[in-house]
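[09:14] KT: can someone run the structure on this one? pasting the chain below
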Amino acid sequence: MKIYGVIHLKGLPGSTSNELSISEITTLAQNDINGLTEGGVDGIIIENFGDAPFVKDNLSKRSLVSFTTVASNLELNRNLDIGINVLRNDGISALAIAEAIDATFVRINVLNNIMYTDQGIIEGKSYDVSQFRNSLSKDIQVFADVFVKHATPPHGAKIENHTKELLERAGADVIIVSGDGTGEVTDIEDLNRIRNIVPKGKLAIGSGLNGENIQDFSQIADIGIIGTDFKADGVLDNPVDANRVKNIIWIFICTCIIVFKTPYVGECVSC
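[09:31] RB: done, structure tokens below
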């Protein structure tokens, strides 16, 4: 299992939550990137988490320029997988930023179907995303959430059906399963239900992964996305704690060596 960290950008110019300059936001983000990189993550997702309350779909031009400027000025280890997530659900802007900074993937919360969210009803735009993606100068993968956090699926919807549609009809490369909210543990039963549907290497955990449960989840998923538990004291609003990152990743490495009885070389070959 690969381990990805998350950069929660402070409110950007263009959002109602903006309090800092682009330079200040960039400095804080760079500090977190340095902590994640030093800690040994395999990838990093950059997202406009501080922009809440979020717009549903189309980021404002000012916010888009602000996000792109910050991301372009970050010093990133290009040996890592780099991703962009534009909240709440602007996949086209995410792809545009990803192309501009040479990122490898984007995360899209609602790629197809609909979800009931705190921003209202969000409808997936897989056709528009696919069309725009095909126009880009490089191949950028799409990581798509199924039953994304902070949202409720339509009555009667089944996670297995949504997963199949994401892979077969919406153009998703990787499926993300998460808990009900940021930092909340992913339902391991949901993860198990779709493991047989999702090809090897294409299933990610989107929330709630920590040092206490990483052993259980590493046997099922291919990618673990950790945001909250990499922060100082495990508090979302705190900066990344490099030592905490190292400790959690060493727990994972020990799981590979002791539980799976395999050597750790970059990522656990048994996961």
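[09:33] KT: thanks! The chain has a mean pLDDT of 93.
[09:34] RB: yep, looked fine to me
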